[in-house]
Design a protein that fits this description.
This protein is of the alpha/beta class. The chain has one domain (2-140): Rossmann fold. It has five helices and five strands, in the order βααβαβαββα. A five-stranded parallel sheet has the order 2-1-3-4-5, sandwiched between helices. The two termini are 12 Å apart. The relative contact order is 0.21. Bound molecules: 1,3,4-trihydroxy-5-OXO-cyclohexanecarboxylic acid (DQA). 1,3,4-trihydroxy-5-OXO-cyclohexanecarboxylic acid (DQA) binds at residues 11, 74, 76-77, 79, 100-102, 104, 111.
Length: 141
Amino acid sequence: MKTIAILNGPNLDRLGKREPEIYGRATLADLEAQLCAEFGSAAKLDFFQSNHEGELVDKISALADAKIDGVVINGAALTHTSVALRDALAGSGLRAVEVHISNIYKREEFRHKSLTAPVCVAVITGLGLEGYFAAVRYLLK
Ligand code: DQA
């Protein structure tokens, strides 16, 4: 069975409470339960959320050693700032799809730049939570 990791960065633990007009009312637990319901029989899903850059870097390193089949990453604000996250993905040899719930290109200019996008196979931005489903579906193909 394939293993896909779903990584979420800073403040995504507050999904459902945080700026619901942008990110919606579903919680991270709701999202994870929905992904399990959809893909649980086809894949092992490894969920990880952290507000700390180094913890995400450590997790990517562990996933690289485990040679899993793909990563869905919403690096949240770290997308726009973190060379460390980019280097971790680039050096991991893992296939990663970057997901953003909101359309980062419709928002403030500082969100238009993603440091991680060039080391991912694709970026899905603005589809809401559906982006996570599309990314897992793609990685399982
Ligand atoms: C986000 C977009 C980022 O700019 C922001 O910092 C987030 C969430 C999204 O999913 O739309 O925290 O990654």
